[in-house]
Amino acid sequence: MDQLIENRILIIDDDQELCALLSDWLGTEGFNLTCAHDGASGLDLAVKDSFKVIILDVMLPGMNGLDVLRRLRQQCNTPLLMLSARGEPVDRILGLELGADDYLAKPCDPRELVARLRALLRRSHAVATESLLQVGDIRIDTDSLMAWRADEPLALTQSEAMILRALLERPGQLVDRQSLSRQALGKALGPYDRSMDMHLSNLRRKLGPHTDGRPRIQVLRGRGYLYTS
């Protein structure tokens, strides 16, 4: 498959100069960038077309980025990196709660953006040797990342599904925070990076407890996480 088709990226940002710069930069790195400059048209493109990753700015005219993200996650689980202005941690936290897979502060270093995009693409292309992984009443298709609780589909983001897969591969075993982040999110966590905590909080809420009330994912403060069976 053509690399430019494999690496199709949608950026939704009203800064047309930034979009032009990113198009040139990402083009030299093998990405094919499509731009939308407002929330409504960006959402329409994201739903109707096929992109490997979406880059979404928070501050957009009309429909803001968080509203776009909220509506987008009702229709698809395309990996999404959110851009947020410096000094707005609440937007970044809310974005992760709504289903963003990663975030960067603006202005961002194009080299870091490329690294984050490649990490998201690697996670999208990751294929396990066994297609179906099941522990108790939770199962996940390790190719499509679709998951179920009993026969009920679970609406997981890609990041949540990757975390679940990593934990189900080692049920009852402690997985430290950095190892889980590298395996599931494709990055090391910085000292103030709360993305793993937000993804795990969302995942635990969606999974719900075991039938006996025990949490499915146990958090051992300062040590890591384990999936209880």
Please write out the topology.
Blueprint: H1 3-6, E1 8-12, H2 16-28, E2 32-36, H3 39-48, E3 53-57, H4 65-72, E4 80-85, H5 89-98, E5 102-106, H6 110-125, E6 132-135, E7 138-141, E8 147-149, E9 152-154, H7 158-168, H8 177-185, H9 195-207, E10 217-220, E11 224-227
Parallel strand pairs: 1-2, 1-3, 3-4, 4-5
Antiparallel strand pairs: 6-7, 7-8, 8-9, 10-11
Question: Would you give an account of this structure?
Answer:
The structure is a single chain. This protein has 229 residues and is an alpha/beta fold. It folds into two domains: 123 residues, 3-Layer(aba) Sandwich (Rossmann fold), CATH 3.40.50.2300; 72 residues, Winged helix-like DNA-binding domain superfamily/Winged helix DNA-binding domain (Arc Repressor Mutant, subunit A), CATH 1.10.10.10. 41% of the residues lie in helices and 21% in strands. It has nine helices and eleven strands. It has a five-stranded parallel β-sheet with strand order 2-1-3-4-5, sandwiched between helices. Strands 6-7-8-9 form a four-stranded antiparallel β-sheet, covered by helices on one side. The protein has a two-stranded antiparallel sheet with strand order 10-11. Helix 3 packs parallel to helix 4, helix 7 crosses helix 8 and helix 7 crosses helix 9.
